[in-house]
């Protein structure tokens, strides 16, 4: 049987800290309140080797720790802006974002994924950003995609 809206108990919101992801988060907060669901915020950062190219990875063992610290800070700031009574949780995971989002949703027992149609780097003339598109392909639960503040005309 197909899950109804009343079965939404745990929502995973994927964020890249873009304005569009912020709008997705607002929508998720509204759904969580109405459904009495819990919210979990996820950010995935790639392996530095892939992000920067093998030759360009800084020879600094502290680099990843510092990156993690800054990303964790951004996550904490985002959670702090949300209504306290929702008891929002958050996690920071390393990997391929489009692969990790569905994997984490399964791990967390989330029955809805909410994300932006676009993020930080994409072209608005594409219908969906690549992380959004590939998440849709891999996910086994419904995915709600939210357009950014300035939808393409
Ligand atoms: P592209 O990355 O393909 O150039 P884009 O950045 O415009 O395009 P996506 O990356 O697909 O678009 O972003 C769509 C949504 O996916 C974002 O609004 C956010 O909700 C989610 N997202 C993107 N990257 C991440 C990430 N690293 N961790 C968690 N969620 C992410
Ligand atoms: Mn992106």
Descriptive notes:
The protein has 153 residues and is an alpha/beta fold. The protein is 41% helix and 18% strand. The chain has five helices and five strands. It has helices at 19-35, 48-52, 62-80, 97-108, 130-138, and strands at residues 10-14, 38-45, 89-94, 112-116, 143-146. Strands 3-2-1-4-5 form a five-stranded parallel β-sheet, sandwiched between helices. β1 (10-14), α1 (19-35) and β2 form a beta-alpha-beta unit. α4 packs across α5 (130-138). The protein is globular and about 50 Å long. The chain starts with 9 loop residues before the first strand and ends in a 7-residue tail after the last strand. The model has no long low-confidence stretch (mean pLDDT 89). Bound molecules: adenosine-5'-triphosphate and manganese (II) ion. Residues 14-16, 18, 20-21, 24, 42-44, 97, 115-116, 118-122, 129-132 line the site of adenosine-5'-triphosphate.
């Amino acid at each position: 049987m197909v899950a109804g809206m009343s079965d939404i108990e745990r929502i995973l919101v994927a964020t890249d800290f873009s304005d569009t992801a912020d709008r997705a988060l607002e929508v998720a907060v509204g759904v969580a309140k109405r459904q009495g669901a819990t919210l979990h915020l996820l950010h995935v950062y790639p392996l530095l080797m892939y992000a920067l190219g093998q030759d360009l990875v800084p020879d600094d063992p502290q680099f990843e720790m510092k990156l993690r610290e800054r990303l964790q800070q951004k996550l904490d700031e985002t959670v702090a802006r949300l209504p306290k009574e929702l008891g929002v949780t958050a996690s920071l995971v390393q990997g391929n974002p489009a692969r990790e989002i569905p994997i984490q949703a399964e791990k967390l027992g989330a029955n809805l994924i909410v994300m932006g149609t676009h993020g930080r780097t994409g072209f608005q003339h594409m219908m969906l950003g690549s992380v959004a598109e590939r998440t849709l392909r891999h996910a086994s639960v419904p995915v709600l995609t939210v357009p950014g503040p300035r939808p393409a005309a």
